[in-house]
Design goal:
Number of domains of chain B: 1
Mean pLDDT of chain B: 92
Number of domains of chain A: 4
Helix content of chain B: over 70%
Low-confidence stretches of chain A: 1-14, 519-523
CATH superfamily of the largest domain in chain A: P-loop containing nucleotide triphosphate hydrolases
Structural class of chain A: alpha/beta
Structural class of chain B: mainly alpha
Shape of chain B: globular
Radius of gyration of chain A: 26 Å
Order of helices and strands of chain B: HHHHHEHEEHHHHEHHH
Distance between the termini of chain B: 18 Å
Distance between the termini of chain A: 36 Å
Helix content of chain A: 25-40%
Strand content of chain B: under 5%
Oligomer: heterodimer
Largest interface: A-B, 31 and 23 residues
Largest sheet of chain B: 2 strands, antiparallel
Amino acid sequence: MEGRRCRPPNWVLTMSLLSIQDLEKSFAGARALGGASLEVRAGEVHALMGENGAGKSTLIKVLAGVVKPDAGSIAIDGASVTIGSPADSLRLGLRFIHQELSVVPHLSVAENIFLGRDYPRRWGVMIDWDGLNRRAAAVLAGLGVNHIPPGRKMARLSVGDQMLVKIASAFQDASIDGGAPARLYVMDEPTAALSAEESQRLFAVIRRLRAAGAGIIYVSHRLDEVMELADRLTVLRDGATVATRDIAGLQKLEVIELMIGRRFAEGYPPRLAPVSSDVALSVEGLSTAYLQDVTFEVRKGEILGLAGLEGAGQSEVIRAIVGADGGHDGAVSLAGRPVKIEEPVSAWAKGLAFLPRERRQEGLVSSASIAGNVSLPHLDDLVRFGLVLDRAAEAEQAVDLGRKVKLKSKGPRQKVRELSGGNQQKVVFARAIAGSPDVLLLDEPTRGVDVGARYDIHALLRELTAEGKAVVLASSDLPELVYMADRIIVFRDGKVATTVSTEGLDQAGLAALCFGTPTAPSA
Amino acid sequence: MASALKTYGTLIGFVLVVLFFWIEIPDTFMTAKNWLNISQQVSMLAVVAFTMTIVMVMGDFDLSVGSMASLAGIVAALAFRDGHGVWVGVALALAVGLVGGLLNGALVAYVGILPFVATLGTLTVYSGLAFLVSGGKTIFGRDIPTAFSGFARSGISLTDTVSLPSLTIVAALVLLVVWFTLEQTTFGRRLYAIGGNKEAARLAGIRVRRLRFLAFGLSGLGAATAGLMYASRVASANPTQGSGLMLDAIAAVFLGMTMSEEGEPHVLATLVGVLILGVLGNGLTQMSIDSYVREVLIGSIIVLAVASSSLGKTKG
């Protein structure tokens, strides 16, 4: 065990506002946290970094009192605490700012700031609206925010301004009813939906909070932001803390290396056949609300990886091609023939198979059986006398494909909600290959899937490409992209930033491209 | 125990209700004649509940079925009064039902209004139309051809004293058609997929909007059929005679849903729900118990059935 991971040095406890030591947490056997430590001082912005699945969200959920750790300790001001519920967390002075804000859109800014507390009154019963608005304006001004009218409806504010109001609400609450003052703000990807200008406003507010002596845990994938804003950073990898560093003097590439570590190519099946020269799918000038002028080609037998930070456009490209979000500008051709796809139904009909990102919300009908889920896009091929469903053929299809994807089940009529995550994903895969498609569009196909199922899925991708199928693979799993894909398109802000061959490319190189770090090695 | 109650609670409740009346009304309740009578009494409700099951499979509702039944009866009666034949009147009424149902479907599927709101609106519209075209009056007597009203009194003789009522046969045919559609066709399979997860169904290439549109059409058609059955049975049509059908139909489907592990509606389970309501009505009437008591009982049974089927679901 010794030397398996390095721990942050033991900070002087009196200095620290929050001290987390060796948190451990497993979900149904899968370890989410194993040795996560974090120490935040009063008056600092502390960035929490790590790849998807490194354990950041679990750590935050522990602080929020939503998840109970299996082992480890948490101390605030040096005193050991137990956070058993969100109420405990609030009482201890922790506040959480997420991308999805819980605001009441129909109430005013002032009401949102003072929600759940006594409003100032006139004659004991009537709400003193002027007084309320004055107080709200004072709270906002205390954070340097002067551009938001307190009487305006929350719904009319931009996301960034709503976030500022939410922070103001957290900031002022101590002064009113004597509860624990807000000591520590946890901000999870707060700038994900903000414009550059809004982000700058947020940073100004964060600096004010810091000056007021608060601690801020700042989670973000945007390295530039972190370098600009944070004082120190802690990096998580595979559920464990790998390092805590001062930002001053730190290089971006160092951070990336800390995040991804050094991993091996083992555990990935080898290529079975070379890529053909025939183009299977070509996309030209694809544009939507999220995408700008995306152009690329995928050849038969090729795996084209789509990489980028969360929300950079990888997922959106796939959704746009299959018509999941309605129409788009630009041209899509299959094997050289232009096609028009405005609804998923036409995508399936034209030989495009689609595996959506969110297995439960978008992929599966969990009340239905394995066979019922596999057959969904292909019901017209399973019909007798024009309209009667051929159940025997449906079950047979599910059994055949289940074998091909190495599905473990009690039979084709088992309900999919009884299956493990990996096996559920194999059901979605079986559906995708059932119609023998020419092109597979896969959005995070191995997310939340155990190691064994992940290998099976990768092996299946190799088989499919050897059969001449083209695969588009959007993934936030960098090793998966580097070892499985033939080429990778890197997206940034809805645009194609660059296209690279995976030959000679390593994870650090790909990560640098995703982050847009100028010192990236060119591949 | 809890899981048995969850799945079989409604069925056990049905058996208990039957046993209760069998003991309380020993002479007349458990007879072929009475059961055929019940089957006729519930036939209209059954048709509405069966076709309501189609939209509820998708997780939707159709609140307009009662006023659609009234409107369909009025349309047929007006056609008869104008001297048209039985088949013309029937065809017109069914057409009105189909169009009205498709209008619901268009509002829900293409305009994007919640089914509750959309069909609440059309409930009022169809009811208003029924009053408007009838002048608010009941159409009866010689205006209704005997060939039409005679249908509800006809049947297939089984013995000298009992016969299988024609209305029961109609309900049985509708049951067969709906069962076949929902359980045996790809159309039905797609509806269940929509009810299970609309977004996943859409992304898997199901034309969610088109299917919702069509399913509401079938519900309207069923409502119109029930309206015609009602008009035939009472040999008259008035603009309110279908109004009790909607709540009972939804109640029957709900009772049926409690019998499924997934909480999905199935038309055979709906049949059990319909029979529970029918047997209660029949038995309580024979015991000369106030019809308001029946309402209290039915409401309680629905709440109890749904509560028992949710046992253990809220844990964890």
